[in-house]
Amino acid sequence: MKNALIISVVAGLLLAAAPCRAQRIFHICALVGEDQFVPAFEGFRGKMAELGYIEGKNVRYSLYNAKGDLDDLKVLAQKIVQQKPDLIVTSSTTATAPVAKLTAGTDLPVVFLSAGNPLKLVKSYSSSGNNLTGISSSALELTEKRLALVRELAPTVKRVVFLTNGQGTNFEEYLAATRDTASKFNFELTEIELLGANRDEVKKHIGRITRKAGEAVVVPPDAPLVGSIEFISAQAVKEKLPSIGPNVQTVRRGMLAAYSSDYHSLGRQGAKLVDMILRGAKPADLPIELPHKLELAVNLKIARAIGLKPAKEILLRADELIE
Amino acid sequence: MAAGWFRWRGGIRHRLLWTGLLFLGIALLANTIAGSLYTRRQIKRAAVRLQAEVASKVANHIAGIMDRKTERLMDLTVSLGLYGPGTEGQRTLALLLVKNDQAFTGMTILDAQGNEIVKVSERRVYFPTDLANRSTELFFRQPMQGAAYVSPVYTTDKAEPYVTMAVPIFQGPGRAVGVVVAEVNLTFLWQIIGDVRFSESGNTFLVDGQGNLVAHRDPSLVLRRTNLRDHFKVREFVERPEAPDAKAGEEGTDIMGQRVVSTYAPVRGLRWAVVVNEPVDSALADLAAMQRYAILLLVAGLGVGSLVILWVSNKITAPIRKLHRGVEIMRQGGLEHRVDIKTGDEIEHLAAEFNEMAAELENSYGMLEQRVDQRTKDLAALYEVTTAVNESLELPPVLDHVIQRISALFDFDATAIFLFDEAGEEIHMRASGGACPEFWGQRKGFRRGEGLVGRVVESGEAFVFEDIASDRRYDSLTRNGETRRAGARFLAVLPIKTKGETVGVVVSTCRYPRRLTEEEFRLLTSMSDQIGAAVQKAGLFEESVSRANELAALYDVTATVNQSRDPDVVLREVVHKVLQLTGFDAARVYLFDSETDGLRLKFHEGLTPEFAAEVVSYRAGEGIDGKVAASGEPAFFYDVQNDPLYEAMARKGRAREAGFRTLMSFPLRSKTRTLGTINFLNRTPRSLLARDRVLLLSMANQICVALENAKLFEQTVAGAKEISALYDVTKTVNQSLDLTVVLQEVIEKFNDIFRFNSTRIYLANPHSGDLELQASYSMEGKGSERVRSFRRGEGIIGKVADSGEPIIFEDLRTDPRYQQLSTSKNTRDTGNAFLAIFPILAKFKTVGTILCNGREPRRLTHGETQLIASMAAQIGVAVENARLYSETKQKTLELEKANTEMEEAYRAKGDFLAAMSHELRTPLNVIIGNADLCRDGFFGDLSTKQRQALEKILRYSRILLKLISDVLTLTKIEAKKMSLDLSTFEIGEVIEQLESYVEQLNHNGRVGISWSVPPKLPALTTDALKLEEILQNLIGNAYKFTPNGSIEIRVRDLTHERRVEFAVADTGIGIKPEDLDKIFDEFHQLEEAHTGSYFGVGLGLSIIKKYLDLMKGDIRVESAPGAGSTFTFTLPYSLDAAALPSRRVAAGQA
């Protein structure tokens, strides 16, 4: 009788004291290598909001932009890691590499939103084997497609200028893939190395891109090069050279054409991974994802400026035509 | 309810409560269970229905989407017909479809022969060289027959799931002219599956025909290529892929081990299935809530029921509790308490009975208290008596105390205690108390059966007379009615018993009649028992004291026996002690006399000298002691004055004449024999108690031990003397090899021991065999040496020498053998009575004799005979040693001479070889030097043939020089002129030298040379040049015997052994097993060397071996013909400087 009473009182008290946990605010630091990657972060932030992460309520973002300067990038990476955030979001392979190095061996999750060559950062697509996971932008994979665009847009071109940056994170891989593909297309490749890790350095050497050097220009996805894309496209126009950019954003900034994933979409895709990690999943358990969508963009203004008339088949396939 | 296996704890209220609750609980529980079961069935049915609907709907949706994908491809084929095969138009159409439908990631158009004519991809570029023929593939063959094709699910290196979809391109009805093949990325299905929300924790997923996960809310599971065949529903589907789920909503365990309710629905035409999965807890959540309510109701019902039962039971049990309280009060001593219950029923009746019982109890308690008081007093008195008995071992104070307590407790006028005397015949008064001491004064003792007291003693029964004036029993039992005459009316006589035996009585009287209650009688009996205990204790104490005295005496005797070796002292001590202890007047000890073979008086005490002189000896079997000694049985005579047996046994009856009454005789027996007898005599007759008998026997045994000890001691002393003597002789024999000295010393020692008048030693002459006198000794100072030699077989000495057996004449004056054997009678004529001659034996041959003479006849004991024989044997050893020493000395002289000659010859040979080698080397060096200059063109140009000839000269000259050097080296070593030049150096330095040597040697690169020298090797302290020479020699050999192949030089640090190992391994011709043992011998060469294939004289390895011996190294070789050879040697880190006398160490000292 007495025991029964005690049990019911205790049970009542337990029910009354229902859990009322204080809501946690996650701190997420984002590091982008260059302005072009900002849309990836925007897409990420938008999708996060859709998934219930409201800024100021349960999430706080700190965005750092290296503006194409590799030295700044390293400093910012250090600064971010010192803050000990709950999670770090990065843009490209270039921006991810210093963060990966600084967080190696820790539990701090790092999610890259658009790594051109994820295998530089992780063990395999199915499992990173470390504290990293993210979305592949397939940039390296699309090297063939970039050269194919030269052939499709300007079928008479035989010599192609390929810009490189010796300090770029994926320099060797891009160069090897481009050389390989160029030989398949029977292109004579002129490699021009624009030394330097920032815009000023690129600008200094831009005069080397001439009609004499080649009949078309291909720019690989390298942060300092993309950061200086305006100079490159201006020089290409000056020399009347068809120019192929590393991503669709560069077409908007003056390149003739590009075939790539859309950074905004990649950011949204990455938000889902971040959500899973914040719910307790380990990065090593989350496979590297491929972009859901690839886009073709053609700048008709530029085409005209250089006296080029793109084939109608290309125009039919283009997702974005800039006129 | 109160069954045997279960007993209620608590009162009626508890019983009512628990019984009521039990029945109520069962009823409520049954109702709850029945309700739950029904509801559960309903809820589960609904959950299953829902799962089946969802699964089926999703499966249909997916089937529909896949159908649309096929339709899109079909549409494409129609458009493709507008363009020529493989044209840019077809390519553009394909690319557009890939662009517009994200599910299609690649597209291929095959012509009627299966050739790829257009191939596009979302990510790749295909070149003409990438196109192939696919006519054998199923995705070509099946569409060519008119049907669409969908492949099983597969994954790429990016871990995403794909299917290949193919449709025919028709040109006219039923005429397929090609096929469109598309790669379909199935990740779009993830969205569809992810959107299916099924309860809070349920999930939905899509699997293919192998159980591989195709789509899941968590894409990572798909990307990791998870196989779910272990899921019970997936397994069911994989086994029957086309069939619908026959057991929808089945419960089972998923791959995470969680209990789930699961249902699947096959996707039409694709061999895929949609599986809906929900944890049991979640699926049956409503049931759990319902069960909680039911339990709450159950608890509430039980609560209300309990209150009702409690109220009813309180009403019933209140008067019972009142009764219970009454009992509690009484239990605590309130016997006056009464209960007041007015219920008008059985309980009121019970209360009345309870009150009556309480009243009776109160009454009984009062009586009991009185009795307890009385009993306590009695027990206190008894306790006091018992304490008195336990506190004292002296009887009189205890008895007085008991009488005092009896008189005080029972109010008797007089009490007395009678106890048996020592003989147990009469009882005497030992204590009395109370009035009329004069009355007790008359009553001192009773015999058994005499009067009332005697009767009680005899029967052990107590008699109590309340009034002897009227009690007829008293008249019949009393002897003379003294008690009554003394004016007593009450009389009690109680026996005192110990271990069931009556040892006395307690008598109490009173002047007036009185009654003895049963308790009083019991108390009196207990007190008399306590007296019995006191009597027993006193007796035991007395006995213990006496026993202790005896043991002390025995101890003294034993101590005396152990401390003294003198039997006389022991006898005196023992006999004195025994007489003191037992109180006997006299004792005498007879011992066997070996001479007379009879008993002889050894010791006596308490006897007059005259009496002792009369009984000084007995022959065996004569008289009492003779008979006791012969039979080994003791004899006892209580009174010899009138004992007929004594008369019969005694020889003359001297003891009787001397006035002794008691006589006893005990045999003195050792373990094996009777040594004698001991007598005890007393002037008054006295009996022999068993205790005394044991004591006397113990004493007799102690005497025996003492006698045996004395004898053993004597024997041991004699034995030790003999051994010591033998030792002296043996020592003398071994100390010197000079026979004359030895014999003289031995003969003196011999005489010290045996004290013969004269002793002489004769030894056989090795050439003539005659026995010649070698040593003599005489007590008189001069030897009787008239006869200095005997022929073998001549006289007694000659006979002993011949036979090897000793001859002894104890008294030659009377011994007829002497007359017979002696030819000269010389010994007798010189006044000797004793003669003994012993042979001296060596290696079983008689080499001499020893002769002993005595003026008096003498008998040698067995021990003496043996000792003389042993000493004679030692003399034999001395003779043999002397002979061997002489022989050895001779041979040693001969050997020394031969050795000196040999050494001289050897030295001459060494000197010759050294000189010759030196002389040969000088001209040879000149030859080599000039030939070298010649070859180098110093003396003008040379023709090819001249140069070849000079090369040969140089080569063979160098071989010759090496041979001469080796011979010289070996000569030096053997002449012990080789020395070590010690220094501490790094092994690397030696290796450097060797490398240059090897470079020269192998200048034409005939063999491959490899070096295995670790970088950090310890420094060595040894002869560096010799080490280099050894290695050069080994490498040179390896090079010589390796026509082609390789040579490896290895160095290894053996840290634990503090040594360094060097090895030279080649892949040359190798060595035959039979040669391996001989290769280190001088001038040994392999067979191949003899055939002329290889040069050398076979000294190199011999020198190496000798060098290594000097340097404390060791060498081994492993080889097989055709498999090459490996020579391995080790050297210590440092040649121990302490062990070497100087830095330059001579070969002979190493």
The biggest beta sheet of chain B is recorded as: 6 strands, antiparallel
User: How many beta-strand elements of chain B?
Assistant: 38
**Gyration radius from CA atoms of chain B, angstroms:** 68 Å
User: Count the strands of chain A?
Assistant: 12
Class from secondary-structure proportions of chain A: alpha/beta
- SSE sequence of chain A, one letter per element: HEHEHEHEEHEHEHEHHEHEHEHHE
Largest sheet of chain A: 5 strands, parallel
- Mass-distribution shape of chain A: elongated
Low-confidence stretches of chain A: 1-21
Oligomer: heterodimer
Q: What average pLDDT do the residues of chain B reach?
A: 83
User: What share of the residues of chain A does DSSP label as strand, in percent?
Assistant: 15-25%
The total count of helices of chain B amounts to 32
Through-space gap between termini of chain B: 109 Å
What is the rounded distance between the termini of chain A? 87 Å
- H/I helix tally of chain A: 13
Give a brief description.
With 323 residues, chain A is α/β, with parallel strands linked by helices.
Keywords:
heterodimer; A: 323 residues; alpha/beta; four-stranded parallel beta sheet; 13 helices; 41% helix; elongated; disordered N terminus; B: 1150 residues; alpha+beta; six-stranded antiparallel beta sheet; 32 helices; flat
Detailed description of the structure:
The complex is a heterodimer of chains A (323) and B (1150). Helix content of chain A is 41%, strand content 19%. Chain A has helices spanning 2-16, 38-50, 70-82, 93-103, 143-153, 171-185, 199-205, 223-227, 229-238, 248-252, 263-278, 300-305, 312-317; strands at 26-32, 59-65, 87-90, 110-115, 132-136, 159-164, 188-193, 216-218, 243-244, 257-261, 294-299, 320-322. In chain A, the strands form 3 sheets. In chain A, strands 2-1-3-4-5 form a 5-stranded parallel β-sheet. In chain A, helix 3 (70-82) crosses helix 4 (93-103). Chain A is elongated, with a radius of gyration of 24 Å. With 1150 residues, chain B is of the alpha+beta class. Chain B contains 32 helices and 38 strands. In chain B, strands 1, 2, 3, 4, 5 and 6 form a 6-stranded antiparallel β-sheet that branches. A 6-stranded antiparallel β-sheet of chain B has the order 14-13-12-17-16-15. Chain B has a 6-stranded antiparallel β-sheet with strand order 20-19-18-23-22-21, sandwiched between helices. In chain B, a hairpin with a 5-residue loop joins strand 5 and strand 6. Chain B is flat. The chains are: A alpha/beta (323), B alpha+beta (1150). The A-B interface holds A 1, 4, 8, 125-127, 136, 138, 141-142, 144-145, 147-148, 181, 184, 276, 281, 285-290, 292-294, 296, 313, 316-317, 319 and B 88, 91-92, 95-96, 99, 102, 122-125, 127, 157-160, 187, 218-220, 223-225, 299, 302-303, 306.
